[in-house]
Write a structure and sequence with these properties.
24% helix; 28% strand; globular; four-stranded antiparallel beta sheet; Pseudouridine synthase; 3 domains
């Protein structure tokens, strides 16, 4: 089944079609050569008509892209580091590191979590979602670290999917926000859809799917906050888009919180500190899938699992304590099970 991407060109100045598509840096449009091939194969239309790559786009033009499906392929086993938090004959829960893609896709043919799972579990993995997503029940964004459940056969996959659809898997994320929510805790409920102007982003839209996110501030800093976030639904980029909607985007988020936004939040004497952190230590969104709680679909055991915080998140919390503590009150790190 081919994918369809709909865009609206929203810029004052005209721009060539091929350059516009390349500048978007969409994972589905993973190279300039691939973009040129799509245009040559008449898979790209402007205002309903196939267009050449030299076509000039003007404000309001509608661009439609039809991306053919990936050819069938087998995932190769790769001996990648894999931190297993829980494992039995039915399922596993692993702690995904940041910047690891969950499964192969456009521009990411291998070196994914799925490759590591195939190496460890082989033919045990479920194939409910096809051979490119062995064992994958749910996903995390590439830049998000933390807990992810893996099904070791199709029957348990179906039962886990029922738990997710019934909202019986309780997920808690840790997030560092730029800016501080007005309320100490609350619920964000909107409809979310892919942005027409930047399809890499998800935005609030009346035509989107319902999304519900609960949050609570665990610790306040000057200009920042540490949040526990509990999504009730599982939409793409849900936490990232909802916190941005709350005007408290996640620190380090390359899509929803630019370096300029962070610098504009801070006084002049601290701007360089932020640049140093985001350039050298936190090179992804400060979002970690911290806890999972659910009933084992076969044994009935209540599983309450925690993923240790990765080094870049710990560094960031220490950085916040050093430069942004309020009245010299520091974070109680025992709460997060770190030294």
């Amino acid at each position: 089944m081919q994918a369809r991407i709909d865009l609206v060109y929203e810029r004052e100045n005209a721009q060539r079609l091929d350059k516009f598509l390349a500048d978007l840096q969409l994972p589905e449009l993973y190279s300039r050569t691939f973009i040129d091939k799509l245009i040559e194969d008449e898979k790209v239309a402007v205002n309903g008509k196939t267009a050449k790559k030299s076509c000039l786009l003007h404000n309001g033009d509608k661009v439609q892209i039809d991306i053919p499906p990936l050819p069938p392929q087998e995932i190769q086993p790769l001996d990648l580091p894999l931190s297993v938090i829980y494992e039995d004959e039915y399922l596993a829960v692993v702690n995904k590191p940041a910047n690891l893609v969950v499964h192969p896709g456009f521009g990411n043919p291998d070196n994914t979590l799925a490759n590591a799972l195939v190496h460890r579990y082989g033919q045990k993995l479920s194939t409910r979602y096809g051979n490119l997503r062995p064992g994958i029940v749910h996903r995390l964004d590439k830049g998000t670290s933390g807990l992810i459940i893996v099904a070791l056969n199709d029957a348990v996959h179906a039962k886990l999917a029922d738990l997710f659809s019934g909202r019986k898997v309780k997920k808690t994320y840790l997030a560092v926000s730029s800016g501080i929510p007005e309320a100490e805790e609350g619920t964000i409920e909107t409809h979310l859809a892919r942005s027409h102007s930047n399809p890499r982003q998800i935005s609030v839209s009346a035509s989107g799917r319902n999304a519900v996110t609960n949050y609570k501030v665990l610790h306040y800093y000057n200009f920042f906050a540490l949040l526990a976030v509990k999504p009730e639904t599982g939409r793409t980029h849900q936490i990232r888009a909802h916190l941005a909607y709350l005007h408290c985007p996640i620190l380090g988020d390359p899509l929803y919180n630019s370096m300029r936004q962070v610098k504009n939040l801070l006084p002049d004497n601290l701007k360089k500190k932020a640049v140093e952190l985001l350039s050298n230590h936190l090179q992804r969104q400060a979002l970690h899938a911290w806890k999972l709680k659910f009933t084992h679909p076969y044994t009935g055991e209540e599983l309450n699992l925690t993923a240790p915080l990765p080094e870049d998140i710990i560094y960031t919390l220490n950085w916040l304590d050093r430069y942004f503590a309020i009245d010299n009150v520091h974070l109680d790190k025992k709460m997060l099970e770190i030294d």
